Amino acid sequence: MTADLRVLRFDGLHPDTLGHYFAAVGLLAAVGQHWPDVRGCWRNRRFLLLHASLTEEQIKGYLLDTWQPTRYERWWGDAQKADTKAKSSSEVWRLRNSRSVQEVQVLECHLVGLSRNQFNPVFGKGGTLGQRDFADVWSECLKKARPTTKPAKGTTGTCGARTASSAKKSKARLNTEAWLDAALTGDDTAELPSVSAAGTWFVFANKSFNTGQDWFREGRLSPWLFLLAAEGALLLVGDVNRRLSIRARPYAVFPFVCDPAQPTTPGEVGMSKEGEFWAPLWDCPATITEVRHLLKRGLARLGNRSAHAPHEFAIAALAAGTDAGVAEFVRFDLRQTTSAKVYEAVPLEHITVSRPDKADYVDRLSASTLLSSLIPWLNRLPYEPRDSKQRGRFRGLRGPVEAAIIRVSERPDEAERWQHLLLLLSRQQARIDRNKSFREKVPPLPWLHPDWFTRAWPEHLPCPEEVLLARAIASIGAGTAYPLLSNLFGVELDRRGNPTFVAGDRPPRVVWNDAEPLRVFGQVLSRRLLDTEPGKPLALGGTCLAPLETVARLLSGDDLNLDQAAEWVLAFSLIDWKAARPKVRRDRLPFAGELLLLGLLRPIFHENPSCLFDWLPKEPKAALARRILNLIQFGYLDEAIQAAKDYYQAAGRSVVNVSIGRSFDDDLPARLAATLLVPLRNHDIRRGLSRWLVPEKVNLK
């Protein structure tokens, strides 16, 4: 039979800063020393303690009078300096052999000895960070939380002396009780003391310049918060790990600590970034022994390996590749903010971990699969320099993509984040493609799954006409050896159908450029007709068809944002559309005006005209299509119409005589050439040509 547990909520312990998070873990560790069966968890981003009979007054009394904090002393300081000069770790290893187990555990929270000492960035460089010394701050807070009172001089043994001493003690007692209450409950009415050098974990407690009447103001903080935070941080014991390889060298591992994120702007190059700490929030009540085991493992896996970068941690959380019980990660970036000699734990995103008992579990797993496909390509991108003198060598390839992946992992149900990532990938691909040095070292993006489009434009969102137009154009050549991707980037397909960059200069078939979109669409059409082999289907077939109304708006010069459409063509060309057959909106538009021209000419640009009408030739006429396209682009529409009529008459059918003359708009030829590139439904193409065909005489005999 399960017993009911009393829930104690501490509103002052939250994951808004790294120090408050450590203080929550430290509270569980401190209370667990006296009540081993006490449990702790996070609910609504507030820390809870659960016990059968424990009260908040008992906890406060225990902390004030009985609790003995873990002794925090940097006994390895001189040995660390000697190892730094010798570029080794032998002195620390020699000294640790003569220390107690508890002292060694404190050491291993700060550094792990390999060929050289590897530091835990949470504690700076072995417990110091510039002028900040974590052990000194701990000693300062301990004195303020538990002050010692001296008896008054000359009054020893008298009643008045005892009364004065009692008054002093009561005032100190009231102060420390108020500070403890402020730490646990978040009460902001108590006047907190000044605590120096605590800003690494508590960003709000930094020294503030130009504040108040002095040159600066020291940060104010409850000393109990730092004592509890140190108790929790000392659970982050490091270890030596080895990758899954016989020849791989061992490396230092600290729980839930990963490499720093790559810079996203040139101004971030050279800024001190020592790493990130991904604080796990668990919602299942756990004892201190279980939490200690959780922090010791520090497990976040991406496939069969551990996550080392921030974006890998985010994908691991999305893929449920973390320890059981972890409900959420809070990301803290250990980075420079004001002084170049120190850094602070800046709170960033909250990444929810996928859970099998949640309704969106399958959806989140599929999202993680899509993002995981980028990891092999992302690992091949060059890293940014870390020296501020090399800001001119900033490439900007990795950082923006990593940041976009983390944003998607934070809210995988927001389509706007997927749209941003998809557009960013196309821009990065274009940058790599236009830089010969990048193309020689970096592979192109692998084919993306069609679900990327579904994520960017889910069914509940209205899909703009520009997006439908871009998807149809991007699907041209899907499943063949000549996809549209080959006209946009200098790539070719290998034997397995995967894109690879062409060695040397970009081939002539890459005609995509930053010119006016209508002109670029016509250039792509002309090039694909030129590259069509004799006797083969025209390289104009697509798996995603555009609605007739969309094509009509393009042809009539309606208010389509063609720049946006061209941008999405680049993005959608990265998707492998060979297996995609999306539903097409069926429009019953009448073929009139400019749409009549499309109805006459479009069958000639079909990849297999015989599937439209059985009387059309089985072999497509690439030369005729090129001739008609050239006539259109030079404005000779009557000649283009006549060439089409001759083609149909040679097939045994007559068409009506219509003259266009020179009364059309100046941009009609460019718009007509662009629409001939867009894949359409066969039914719409048949309807368009049927308006031109002269009805055959019916033999009644």
From TrEMBL:
InterPro entries attached to this UniProt entry: Cas_Csx17 (IPR026483)
Protein name from the UniProt record: Type I-U CRISPR-associated protein Csx17
